[in-house]
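User: I'm writing a tutorial on reading structure tokens. Could you give me a worked example: one chain, its sequence, then its tokens, then a sentence or two explaining what the tokens reveal?
Assistant: Sure. Here is the example chain.
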Amino acid sequence: MTDDSAPVRFDTKIAVLLRDDLQTWQRLNVTAFLVSGLGTQAPEVIGEPYADADDTPYLPMFRQPVVVLSGSKELLTTAHTRALGRGATMAVFTSDLFATGHDEANRAAVRAVQPDAMDLVGLAVYGPRNAVDKILKGASMHP
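And here are its predicted structure tokens:
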């Protein structure tokens, strides 16, 4: 018999790093955008669909927790460089995206900037737990 409430230690980690000077609505919006594509590139992170007692179906969600961290603009740049160097699965959100209104404009805004010149406000990383920890070293838990 297994204990369904016992914590599971995953070999992988999903983590979001947000710039520490964002407004609350920006933090929530950036987090949602950053993790939204993860399941398309790493389908193993998605669990089974949900259903309630009446068998009403609900969408599946991540099978593991998402760690949300906070850090300075400089830390985001460092983490981005580390993630690129490790070939990590990553999503980015730049300050330019607050001024765009749709997906095509978002992609164009990111494409217009060299990686080392991005004004990052958030990034999401997925991969082996130890690698993600090294990429995000120096970040603190989001308050």
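What the tokens reveal: The first helix runs from residue 24 to 36. The longest strand covers residues 120-128.
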